[in-house]
């Protein structure tokens, strides 16, 4: 059959084969050349950050995770920021004072300007507030009982006016990032101008990579590092390996296990601070009145079965503390209300006193994968601990994108305990208490309270605290709110994780703050 | 050995020496097949037997935690495979997880085998629109982003064992169907089919009483190879978070849970993975060897 | 020829439309709400309802589908929720990475499998060939995420010589490509061996041998070039299949291709992005397959298009 093939056919075939080979090779080379730079490792004068979540935008209107705060603030700034001791520090403002119960007076610094040199106007602040208020599903809305209005006084001074006293406004305003009014929209901004120490020069949506260049005209003095590369590395294992090998210079919000793995490596340094986030095994407060969990004594009994010390010290590798109050101890205005004790014998007695014997109680524990570091191990350990006092637990783990929020609202299925983390971006206890425990019966009608927690005493006290202008009196009421919440046993167990960050030795002056962020402008590179 | 063969040589009425016989292609091929079958059987048994007998072996309970002995390396304190992040015996967990993984694999292959056999046989025998529908379905599935579709379906129906089994079965039926179809196409033209039809047997009777029994043996060999793929597919789904719900600790789940400890506790990832590899290699070799062996005996019947 | 292409393209368009429709319905039936992924964790029911309206998710699935089809025919695939950018562009940003990985993997497969297959053909059914065969089967039997993690542990942790994630340098391509190629070598090398054995034992080669042509030329010149077509076709088909996503390997190595994109899109229930990914990858895979089928008759004159061949 082959022999009858004509000569021309054979030539064309062979040519075709060759052409194919050449074309394939060329395509490969050009494809590759388009995708990657020729060099390996970070370029000189550059720092590479490895974030575990994608920095979709450089804005915080909708969502905010800790690492993003660092990068967002390197580009855009607010009037204040939450400082290292979790109190507000003025940034774009040089004056931020409560001048009457419902009025704050603010003055912009006279030396600030955007990275293109244009000045910051009062209008930019008022527009920013409007845009944050308009955005749907905003994260900050829950912390703002009402949005203040801006009333200009002169070209640098203005007042922030509210209907009712808003004593924590200086904390809250730290989350309102300022950008030129004309460019602001009620959505997250993808690019644009800011006053911060860095400007975005390139971004690749596809890979979640951002390149920040030093803003040489930064009003507070240009930062040390010429260029910052932000990479999105979702898998924790990849981040750890990347830091070890030098592909990444800095990874933040790492798990206790990753910290353990990196501990003792000569080229890696680890920073730890006590965090502001609180992670809870929260009870379902939408249970019918006759359900055991509707009784505070049963909730307390179950708490006694959980060995918080073991969970914190062993499973979470000592990088968390059991909570001693309803919010993280680090927050301003938080007080110690009690402690989680481990006493399974008493737990059993208390349950029996309520008529609950071995095997009578079966609970469902729900959580979403990755809700906090070591989540799965904690949940599996809790199953065993409750099993020891004769309480059965079924685990239901939701993958990202699943319908856990429907479950939380009780619309998709019944549950008893929720593994949940609550971020506290404002540094003060009061707004967090308001956000978590300030659920009202009206809000509960649409199931918009925190797992059904509605407590009239707490509501009354919160109202009182917000209306109180005298700081000492306000603190007294805030402390009382916390005690009332604690005594209602909302969580089976709660803990405050440390914020942990690891970086390579060549990077200097990484000062991790309790908010789990750091000032990118201060970071340097070893010569 | 050699001495005995030499003494036997004169008795053979042939110039062909035993050495030549030994080196002949056919003998070598069947020997290769034998080697594969033996190695495959040993490897498969090495995994399947302990998994099947897990409950009888003197092992700690796979769910029993001991927070004081977390992440012990292999061969410490009687833990052959070491312990995991909660101090559970890894060997017990691997064997336990294996029961689920293998069960899912076997069930999925049975289901896909039945679907594939029925659809393929119908397409090959009846032709026409039946063939068109089945063939287009096969093609469509070939061009689909399979894994993504599987993830979607698991998200839709929930990660229970029956759902995952069904999903894997659906992923695998085309292979069986295509093979069955091509074999039925050949078989259909044989005289015995004509004979059966002439005797007045209805189509369904011819197909299922006469044709299918003739192709089922070949198909069953492919099914063995599919079992290996099913185990791999299940572990990939578990790895991507779409494995059977906890407390089932399937192999993929063990590996993805252990991945976070990869730089300090290598055994959490390496050992469960090795067990998967042993089983899959074993099953693959077994399937391969059996296929080669059949090819050797039945001339011309190529898959 | 033209009729054939038109017919094939028509069929492909139908397959893609069916696929995308299935995906469209499936994702909307699956539990989970894009609004919750889009909004803050403490968003109220009212907020979520507003977001759903904003995203065009408030109507029935049927009305959404009609809108979607209308947009599809004008070339609009919607805006990705999580990237807040046109879904089609987001996918196109990622496609080159997947193509690069797939090409590298296919070339690596060829480089290993061709010599190996030839070697196996020349030692057909010997103990050593069986050994090599078992090794390739073992490579094929490894779960890709496991072999990926193992490679990563050895080459990025123990001997940190290769990057572990992403594609910032050329060397980042090595480990993912090896991981993908491991799965393919068994298949391709066996195909090479089978083709070579049938060519080496065919009459024309015996004639050539009788003409005194050297063994080396017989193997590398005659037998190999006649085995090339099926092998190239198989490699092309593997390439086409990889365009549909090397999902697991991309996730393990944080490779910024469409496979890891689709996993993320699923996690955020990013409907437009899921649809765009499925559409683009399915279309690419089908086109590459079509191209292979079109080239086949040019390479092998015995094959004529449009005539059914048992494939």
Automatic annotation (TrEMBL), chain B:
Main location: membrane
GO cellular component, one term: plasma membrane
Membrane topology designation: Multi-pass membrane protein
Positions of the ABC transmembrane type-1 domain: 98-287
Annotated spans, Disordered: 1-25
GO biological process: transmembrane transport
UniProt subcellular location: Cell membrane
Gene3D superfamilies: MetI-like
Record keywords: Cell membrane, Membrane, Transmembrane, Transmembrane helix, Transport
Record-linked Pfam families: BPD_transp_1
InterPro entries: BP-dependent_transpt_permease, MetI-like, MetI-like_sf
Residues annotated as transmembrane: 100-126, 146-171, 221-242, 266-286
PANTHER family, A to Z: D,D-DIPEPTIDE TRANSPORT SYSTEM PERMEASE PROTEIN DDPC-RELATED, OLIGOPEPTIDE TRANSPORT SYSTEM PERMEASE PROTEIN APPC
Similarity annotation: Belongs to the binding-protein-dependent transport system permease family.
Protein name stated in the entry: ABC transporter permease
Organism whose genome encodes this protein: Prauserella cavernicola
Automatic annotation (TrEMBL), chain C:
Any single Gene Ontology cellular-component annotation: plasma membrane
UniProtKB keywords: Cell membrane, Membrane, Transmembrane, Transmembrane helix, Transport
Residues of the ABC transmembrane type-1 domain: 95-292
Mode of membrane association: Multi-pass membrane protein
Pfam families named among the record's database cross-references: BPD_transp_1, BPD_transp_1_N
Superkingdom in the source lineage: Bacteria
Cited SUPFAM superfamilies: MetI-like
UniProt keyword Transport present: yes
Record InterPro entries: BPD_transp_1_N (IPR045621), MetI-like (IPR000515), MetI-like_sf (IPR035906)
GO biological process: transmembrane transport
Cellular compartment(s): Cell membrane
Entry similarity comment: Belongs to the binding-protein-dependent transport system permease family.
Protein name per its UniProtKB record: ABC transporter permease
Provenance organism: Prauserella cavernicola
């Amino acid at each position: 059959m082959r022999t009858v093939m004509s000569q021309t056919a054979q030539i064309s075939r062979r040519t075709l084969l060759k052409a194919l080979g050449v074309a394939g090779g060329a395509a490969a080379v050009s494809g590759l050349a388009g995708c990657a730079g020729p060099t390996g490792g970070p370029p000189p004068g550059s720092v590479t950050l490895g974030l575990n979540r994608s920095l979709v935008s450089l804005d915080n209107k909708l969502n905010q995770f800790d690492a993003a705060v660092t990068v967002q603030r390197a580009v855009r700034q607010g009037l204040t920021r939450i400082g290292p001791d979790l109190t507000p520090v003025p940034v774009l403002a040089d004056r931020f004072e409560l001048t009457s119960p419902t009025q704050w007076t603010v003055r912009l610094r006279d030396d600030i300007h955007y990275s293109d040199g244009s000045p910051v106007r009062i209008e930019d602040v008022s527009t920013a507030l409007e845009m944050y208020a308009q955005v749907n599903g905003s994260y900050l809305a829950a912390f703002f009982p009402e949005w203040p209005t801006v009333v200009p006084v002169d070209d640098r001074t203005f007042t922030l006016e509210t209907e009712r006293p808003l004593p924590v406004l200086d904390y809250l305003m730290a989350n309102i990032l300022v950008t030129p009014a004309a460019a602001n929209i009620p959505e997250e901004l993808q690019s644009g101008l800011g006053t911060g120490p860095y400007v975005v020069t390139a971004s690749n949506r596809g890979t979640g990579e951002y390149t920040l260049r030093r803003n040489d005209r930064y009003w507070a003095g240009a930062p040390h590092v010429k260029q910052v590369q932000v990479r999105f590395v979702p898998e924790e294992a990849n981040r750890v390996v990347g830091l070890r090998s030098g592909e990444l210079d800095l990874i933040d919000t790492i798990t206790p296990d990753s910290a353990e793995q990196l501990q003792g490596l000569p080229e890696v340094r680890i920073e730890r601070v006590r965090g502001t986030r609180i992670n809870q095994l929260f009870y379902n407060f939408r249970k019918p009145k006759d359900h055991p969990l509707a009784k505070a004594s049963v909730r307390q009994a179950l708490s006694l079965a959980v060995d918080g010390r073991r969970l914190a010290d062993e499973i979470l590798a000592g990088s968390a503390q059991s909570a001693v109050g309803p919010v993280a101890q680090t927050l301003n205005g938080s007080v110690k209300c009690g402690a989680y004790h481990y006493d399974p014998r008493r737990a059993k007695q208390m349950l029996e006193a309520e008529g609950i014997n071995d095997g009578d109680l079966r609970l469902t524990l729900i959580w979403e994968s990755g809700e906090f570091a070591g989540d799965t191990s904690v949940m599996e350990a809790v199953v065993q601990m409750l099993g020891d006092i004769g309480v059965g637990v079924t685990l239901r783990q939701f993958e990202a994108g699943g319908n856990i929020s429907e479950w939380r609202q009780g619309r998709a299925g019944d549950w008893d305990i929720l593994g949940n983390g609550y971020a506290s971006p404002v540094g003060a206890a009061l707004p967090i208490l308001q956000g978590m425990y300030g659920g009202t019966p009206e809000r509960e009608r649409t199931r918009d309270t925190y797992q059904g927690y509605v407590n009239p005493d707490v509501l009354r006290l919160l109202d009182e605290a917000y209306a109180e202008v005298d700081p000492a009196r306000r603190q007294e009421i805030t402390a009382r709110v916390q005690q009332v919440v604690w005594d209602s046993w909302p969580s089976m167990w709660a803990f405050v994780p440390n914020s942990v960050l690891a970086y390579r030795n060549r990077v200097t002056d990484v000062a991790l703050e309790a908010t789990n962020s750091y000032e990118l402008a201060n970071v340097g590179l070893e010569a | 050995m050699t001495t005995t063969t030499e003494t036997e040589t004169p008795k053979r009425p042939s110039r062909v020496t035993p050495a030549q016989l030994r080196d002949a292609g056919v003998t070598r091929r069947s020997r290769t097949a034998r080697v594969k079958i033996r190695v495959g059987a040993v490897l498969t048994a090495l995994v399947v037997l302990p998994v099947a007998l897990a409950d009888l072996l003197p092992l700690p309970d796979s769910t029993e935690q001991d927070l004081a002995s977390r992440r012990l390396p292999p061969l410490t304190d009687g833990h052959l495979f070491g312990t995991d992040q909660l101090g559970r015996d890894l060997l017990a967990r691997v064997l336990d997880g294996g029961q689920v993984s293998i069960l899912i694999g076997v069930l999925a292959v049975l289901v896909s085998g039945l679907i594939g056999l029925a659809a393929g046989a119908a397409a090959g025998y009846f032709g026409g629109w039946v063939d068109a529908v089945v063939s287009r379905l096969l093609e469509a599935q070939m061009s689909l982003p399979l894994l993504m579709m599987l993830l979607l379906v698991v998200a839709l129906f929930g990660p229970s064992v029956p759902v995952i089994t069904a999903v894997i079965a659906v992923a695998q039926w085309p292979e069986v169907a295509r093979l069955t179809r091509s074999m039925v196409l050949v078989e259909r033209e044989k005289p015995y089919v004509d004979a059966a039809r002439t005797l007045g047997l209805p189509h369904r009777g011819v197909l299922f009483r006469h044709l299918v029994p003739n192709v089922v043996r070949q198909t069953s060999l492919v099914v063995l190879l599919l079992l290996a793929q099913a185990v791999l597919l299940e572990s990939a789904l578990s790895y991507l978070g779409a494995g059977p719900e906890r407390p089932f600790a399937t192999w993929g789940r063990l590996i993805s849970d252990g991945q976070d400890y990869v730089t300090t506790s290598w055994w959490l990832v390496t050992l469960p993975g090795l067990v998967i590899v042993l089983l899959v290699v074993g099953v693959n070799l077994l399937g391969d060897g059996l296929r080669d062996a059949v090819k050797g005996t039945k001339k011309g019947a190529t898959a | 020829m033209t009729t054939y292409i038109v017919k094939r393209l028509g069929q492909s368009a139908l397959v893609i439309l069916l696929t995308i429709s299935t995906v469209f319905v499936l994702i909307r039936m699956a539990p989970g709400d894009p609004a919750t992924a889009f909004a803050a964790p403490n968003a109220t029911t009212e907020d979520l309802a507003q977001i759903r309206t904003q995203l065009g998710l408030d109507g029935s699935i049927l009305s959404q589908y009609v809108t979607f089809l209308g947009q599809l025919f004008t070339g609009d695939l919607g805006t990705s929720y999580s990237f807040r950018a046109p879904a089609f562009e987001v996918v196109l940003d990622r496609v080159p990475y997947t193509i690069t990985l797939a090409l590298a993997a296919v070339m690596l497969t060829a480089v290993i499998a061709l010599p190996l297959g030839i070697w196996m053909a020349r030692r057909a059914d010997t103990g050593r060939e069986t050994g090599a065969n078992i090794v390739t089967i073992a490579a094929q039997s490894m779960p890709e995420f496991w072999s990926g993690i193992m490679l990563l542990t050895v080459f990025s942790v123990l001997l940190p010589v290769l990057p572990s994630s992403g594609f910032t340098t050329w060397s980042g391509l090595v480990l993912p490509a090896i991981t993908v190629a491991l799965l393919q070598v068994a298949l391709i090398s066996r195909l090479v061996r089978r083709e070579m054995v049938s060519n080496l034992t065919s009459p024309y080669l015996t004639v050539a041998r009788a003409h005194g042509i050297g063994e080396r030329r017989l193997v590398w010149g005659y037998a190999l070039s006649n085995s090339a077509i099926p092998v190239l076709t198989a490699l092309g088909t593997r390439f086409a299949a990889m365009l549909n996503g090397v999902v697991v390997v991309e996730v393990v190595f944080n490779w910024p291709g469409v496979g890891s994109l689709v996993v993320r899109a699923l996690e955020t229930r990013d409907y437009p992005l899921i649809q765009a990914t499925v559409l683009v990858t399915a279309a690419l895979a089908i086109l590459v397959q079509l191209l292979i089928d079109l080239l086949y008759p040019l390479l092998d004159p015995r094959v004529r298009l449009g005539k059914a061949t048992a494939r």
